[in-house]
Amino acid sequence: MLTRNLGRSGLRVSLVGLGCNNFGGVIDLDATRKVVDAAIAHGITLFDTADIYGERGGSETALGEVLGARRKQIVLASKFGMEMDSEGVKTGGSRRYIMQAVEDSLRRLKTDWLDLYQLHRPDPLTPIDETLRAMDDLVTQGKVRYIGCSNVVAWQVADAAWTARDLGIPGFVSAQDEYSLLVRGAEKDLIPAARHYGMGLLPYFPLANGALTGKYRRNAPMPEGARLTKLPERAGKIFSDGNWVKIEALTDFAQARGKTLVELAFSWLAAQPVVSSVIAGATKPEQIAANVKAAEWALTAQDLAEIDAITA
Q1: pLDDT for 46-61, tens place per residue?
Q2: 92 contact partners, CB below 8 Å, separation of at least 6
Q3: Is 197 a catalytic residue?
């Protein structure tokens, strides 16, 4: 497994990361253990979860149960900021909440520290300097090693970077956002900003919610039990006529080279210099093996140009 630095930081992460959003909800503890075992066996070091995953705390709890002493072998990332209660109290990026949220996550994960702690989404009610100061205090206390953000736009990246610089404290080293062969909006502003400020990109939904798995066909019935079959609104947006043209052209591109659409989707992301790790969820061990193998295809400059002609 290849590793890369997370942005300009010294934190090394595996090129393929494990998204832990299925733990504590979609799959049970035994299945979670099998997926984690497979991930570690295949050299995956970045495990990305969030307090909200798995029905509010379920993912962190399950991960804490199955990792044990192996926690020291991995880069453990979590997030805060989404609603963790129904009253609107446990949410946001205030100092008061951050200090509580990190303790709750550490307890569920059965660990003393997080390698990467991320603001899950911007909090318009809290000044960014308050959020950054609180997160820096966690770094000083040894509870957090690095800090990152998620679901932000370019001006918020710049605002946070300049605020951290003005305060003389470490800023965000990473940004998570949706990015795939079908969703390339991040290239307009977010990715240039991330590159400028030395942040690594951690793309989620690398397979566009499964649209790039090859299991869907135009004008054919949706596969029973598939993710997008259960999300008709999302499917309606992804499976536009324009995207069907792209999916079919990308499939032909991959097959002409003896590869699968999944291999193309992962390897294309891996070829982007700003990408530090491709985060992908899994519910079965065999999906881990497929994800790791998928990122091994080294695309040439000509390949990338042809792909751009199809998808840009």
Answers
A1: 999 999 999 889 999 9
A2: 81, 123, 125, 126
A3: no
